[in-house]
Amino acid sequence: MRISIGRYLNQFIITRENKVLNVVDTSLMGWVSGSSPMGAGFLGYDKLDKDSIARSAELAVSIAKENARLQSEPVQLAPQKGYGE
Predict the structure, then answer these.
(1) How far apart are CA 57 and CA 43, in angstroms?
(2) What average pLDDT score do residues 35-42 get?
């Protein structure tokens, strides 16, 4: 199983009649599990502690096993390099 950890930073600028009314910065960090050889078992979560990841990974594996029963051929992911932090 493959896990991708992401950090998303967004900034919103609210304007009205050529004036800036508000600037909002948001930040979100979380992870998403990828596909396994048994089938697609995707799952995401916003907690990065060891227990949360372990529980979620177990659930993702069980989803992948069930999905594998319905697939006629395995999922083939295209190779992809990681980007930055």
Answers:
(1) 8
(2) 46
